[in-house]
Amino acid sequence: AFHQSMPKATYMYAVPREFYEKYGVRKYGAHGTSHRYVSEKVAELLGKDPKELKTISCHIGNGASICAVKYGKSFDTSMGFTPLSGLVMGTRTGDIDPATIPYIAKKTGLSLEEIVRIFNFESGLKGISALSSDLRDIEDVRDTNPYAAEAVEVYINRIKEYIGAYAAAMNGVDAIVFTAGVGENQKRIRAGIIKYLEFMGIKLDSKRNETREEALISSDDSTIPVWVVPTNEELVIARDTLRLVTK
C-alpha cells in the first residue's frame, strides 16, 4: 500500500497500454511496510517531519529493494511487477534483459516456467558465487574465492547504481538509511556501497559503522547523513490495524 503513491512516470512500463489497462502490468513494489517505518524513523532521529525529507531507504536482506521516499511518500522503488526485479538478491536475478528468457529456452530446452523458477530461486548471489545464497557464507571466503568476490562486487554495484539514480530522480537526497538482515549487520557491505557515494560528499565513520543497532554511521562532516535503522514491520502493521479498527 505504501507504494500506491508512486506517480505514473515511475510505475508505468513502456508496454502496450492494453497490458496495463486490462491486465495490470505495472510496477507495484514490495517491502513497503519496512520502507515506511525506517523513513519515518530516520526523520524522527533527525528531528524533522517526514514531509520535509527526501530519503533513500535500502532494505537489504535475502530479498532486497530500495525506495525513494519523497516528502514522506513512496516516489519510486526497485522491485516491480513481482519481487524479481531490481537489486541482486540471495537467489533472485534482479534486473535482467527479458530477452534472455527465450534465448536460454532455445539453448537449453527449458520451459519458460522453469527459467523463471531458476531466476527466482537459483540465481542472484547463489548463482554468481556458485556457493550460497547467504551473504555471510560468501563474505567468509570473499578474499580467497574469485566467484564469491565477483558476487559481492555485482551485489554492491547494483545497490549504488540505484542510490545514485534515486538521488537524481528526487533532485537530491537528505538521508540514506540501511535496514534488514544485510543492511543492519554487514558493515563491510555498507562501507563498500558508501565508498562509491563519496562524490556526493558522503563520508563514512568507520568506528560508527561497527554497529548492528540503530546508529548514525556517517561522519559529522558528511553532506548527507547515513543511518542504520532496524526495521519494525510488525509495529507498522499493529498501528495500521489499530487505526483501521478505531475509525
Describe this structure in words.
Helices cover 44% and strands 12% of the residues. The protein contains 11 helices and 6 strands. The chain has helices spanning 8-11, 17-23, 32-45, 100-108, 112-121, 124-129, 135-141, 146-169, 180-185, 187-194, 233-245; strands at residues 54-60, 64-70, 73-77, 175-179, 215-216, 226-228. Helix 3 (32-45) packs across helix 11. The radius of gyration is 19 Å and the shape is globular.
Please state the CA-atom Rg, rounded to the nearest Å: 19 Å
pLDDT under 50 segments (min length 5)? none
Tell me, briefly, the overall form: globular
Q: Give the total of beta strands.
A: 6
The share of residues in helices is 40-55%
* Euclidean distance between termini CA atoms: 18 Å
Provide a count of the helices. 11
> Which class do the helix and strand fractions yield?
alpha/beta
Largest sheet: 6 strands, mixed
Major β-sheet strand ordering: 3-2-1-4-6-5
Percentage of residues in strands: 5-15%
Q: Provide the residue-averaged pLDDT.
A: 96
Question: In brief, what are we looking at here?
Answer:
The chain is of the alpha/beta class and 247 residues long. It has 11 helices and 6 strands. Strand 2 and strand 3 (73-77) form a beta hairpin.
Give me some keywords for this one.
six-stranded mixed β-sheet, 247 residues, alpha/beta, single chain
